[in-house]
Amino acid sequence: MEYVIEMLNITKEFGNFRANDNITLQLAKGEIHALLGENGAGKSTLMNVLFGLYQPEEGEIRVNGKKVNISNPNVANDLGIGMVHQHFMLVENLTVTENIILGSEPKKMGVVNIKDAAKKVAEISKLYGLNVDPYAKIEDISVGMQQRVEILKTLYRGANILIFDEPTASLTPQEIQELIGIMKKLITEGKSIILITHKLQEIMDVSDRVTVIRKGQGIGTVVTSETNPEELATLMVGRQVTFKTEKGPANPKEEVLHVEDLVVTDNRGIEKVKGLNLSVRRGEIVGLAGIDGNGQTELIEAIAGLRKVKSGKITINSKDITGKKPRQITESGLGHIPQDRHKHGLVLDFSVGYNSALQEYYHEPYSKNGIMDYGIISEKAKSIIEEYDVRTQGEHELARALSGGNQQKLIIGREVSRDPDFLIAALPTRGLDVGAIEFIHKRLIEQRDNGKAVFLISFELDEVMNVSDRIAVIHDGQIVDTVIPSETTEQELGLLMAGHSTKETSMKEGVDRDVK
Amino acid sequence: MSNRVVNLLVPIISIILGLLVGAIVMLFSGYDPVSGYIALWNGIFGDSYAIGETIRQISPYILAGLAVAFAFRSGLFNIGVEGQLMVGWFTAVYVGAAFELPMIIHLPITLLAAALAGALWGLVPGILKATLKVHEVIVTIMMNYVALHVVNALIKTVSGGSYKTDKIQPTASLRSDFLSNLTDYSTLHYGIFVALAMVAVMWFLLEKTKTGFELKAVGFNENASQYAGMNVKKNIILSMVISGAFAGLAGAMEGLGTFGSMTTQGGFTGIGFDGIAVALLGANTPLGVIFGASLFGSLKYGANNMPNAANIPLEIVSIVVALIIFFVASGYIIRVGLQRLNKKKEAK
């Protein structure tokens, strides 16, 4: 096989820590090569080595068979290697063309020649079916479009090898499909692609071969058509992973959360929750399914006391908590894994230890007569780190330094260890790899089995289907229906989420049948 | 080079660089940098009198630096230390002069009154920030002007139209014959101990107490603090109040220690504004503030000797002092430079 890129036996160390340990990756011409690994397995480090941001301690890199020394990103650019970053590096209030030429502006007598550049951008865009308007401002175009601008940028600079770093993380399902189309188009035009991801389905859909790394070590390369998601997951995590979450039947008891005719507005004063009714009982997991923006955020924030309730009533364990302060609600038995872990869940510049005490610091034994006991807080942090498998250098490390999955495990550890009667888990697995997702689902089910009420909010249908005992479907600020996972399909859920009631769907099916 | 060596080298190189550039400025202006720096050195450390005066100058800088640093640690930028210091100064002098009490009661009450006055001046921007989200920088700047003119008016009122208040009672004075005798009759007073005690207070508050935990959390992330059930508004107000109290005490240093009275002010004292630089030089930590205040206090006082002993005009002296401080503040540049140097060595 002809390889455009060969990274042979790469080892990269940071102090005593081996981020990459003898990893080999060979990219054939015209292939989409997936690089698979858990959060923090060393994928980004390896790509930063290829891109010239890090120098490896051992190993060599060959481009088109020739040994090269990529000492900085400019060298990588000259070799035709381009990176499409996960977090876009675009200037919001400049146009597409201005962003693309930024740093290497074509000049005509000392004046930037935008016209010719825009023409070239339009040509490339047309060639690869990107459909980008060269004169559009970045702030006016969608996230999916912005990603295409990033792709255009690498192509404009003559990249033949494109590295995509977790490209689907912030895209809608529709945009993901379009991206896959673009990637395939790029291949037919003779480009080669390295795709960094931990989403197995994407790999199965789009890649030709997969290189798996685990805890910094190269596990091997497999041909995608000869493998399956289960095998890939096992290779990645190093043990068998169950996709179908195992759980016994639910044993629901008395009601813990009761929401009645709740109305909540967003920051602009527009009603987002419109007379919503909901009930969650001990010993069951209720999933909230819905398309983003249908009132989920406002509902959770209202329950947690972070947002004002306009009208209606919320009770936990029959105690009215409507309009109460967050701490009073927490003390009434609420545990809350918030939707945005950086905004609400953690103080990123606090240590892991401080964060582990965020909900309980104010009472004994964590503080006494106004004086903190950081010794006891450290002990608590250590036990959460141990029990919830938070990978960190210790309780004194800043929360900011943890990977997303480990930040999430820290929050879950903090909330679950308080043993709350009612647990809200809002998007608890967003951005996490299969190993971490499995772990978190197990913990939620464990809480249920201990007789607690769990309320799971998720945009992933299979998560809602797998984990919940009942599914409440939210649309336009109201619960339009409640269904049992075993008695429904993703299609039916999808229709409900889009605002069709079950009556309508069954009627429609009836009509279809009649027509046939 | 290990990290520890770099940490030690950075401030030393910074000061040397500042001195060098300062020397160039003096040379170009036609003055002798060697005699200039000898005069500066003597002005700071030359004899026990100079040392006493230098330490006396450092005390208000420590407190002003603490005031800025404390607010900063809870995410607030207190530019109003200047005004809080002035009302603290006036209040200290007024309470110190108006009552006759035994020292053991009078001095603490006077200090407390100064702290309360500064706290009150911090309370206003605190409340406005917490309830109406008015930016504290704007309010504190404006409160500085209010303080300047209110204090001047009050001085005239209490002195019956004069430009100067009465002298304080000896029972409210921080003056110390012992310290004064020790340093060849300098004006060194007990204020330095008050300042150092407040360094300990700030450290204890931030690092040991529940309040400190909350203040820091609110400073880093208001949303997460609210989620954790903290009263964000209360903490914002409290932070400004404590910050203002430190600033008020800085004013008491001048009122009860250095001057023993207050004259109407033509403009700001500058100590409060220098406090911002002191806090930033000290990375907003209590111990760092001592370092920053020592640098500021020494240079400010020592530089007074340069016009007399080396015939260098005050304007040039100000430039030289500013340059030294500038280079210390830009320690980051030197740190990066050192790391580059290191890398090159390793590559070879």
TrEMBL record, chain A:
Similarity field: Belongs to the ABC transporter superfamily.
Membrane topology listed for this record: Peripheral membrane protein
Record bears the keyword Kinase: no
Main location: membrane
Protein name: Heme ABC transporter ATP-binding protein
ABC transporter domain mapped to chain residues: 5-240, 257-501
One Gene Ontology MF term: ATP binding
Organism: Sporosarcina luteola
Key words, A-Z: ATP-binding, Cell membrane, Membrane, Nucleotide-binding, Repeat, Translocase, Transport
Cellular component terms per the entry's GO annotation: plasma membrane
Keyword Repeat: yes
TrEMBL record, chain B:
PANTHER family: ABC TRANSPORTER, PERMEASE PROTEIN, GUANOSINE ABC TRANSPORTER PERMEASE PROTEIN NUPP
Transmembrane segments: 7-28, 101-124, 136-155, 188-206, 236-253, 316-338
Organism of derivation: Sporosarcina luteola
InterPro entries: ABC_transp_permease
CC per GO annotation: plasma membrane
MF terms in GO: transmembrane transporter activity
Keyword Cell inner membrane tagged: no
Keyword annotations from UniProtKB, A to Z: Cell membrane, Membrane, Transmembrane, Transmembrane helix
CDD domains membership: TM_PBP1_transp_TpRbsC_like
The keyword tRNA processing appears for this protein: no
Lineage: Bacteria, Bacillati, Bacillota, Bacilli, Bacillales
Protein name: Putative ABC transporter permease protein YufP
Topology term for the membrane: Multi-pass membrane protein
Subcellular location per the Swiss-Prot or TrEMBL entry: Cell membrane
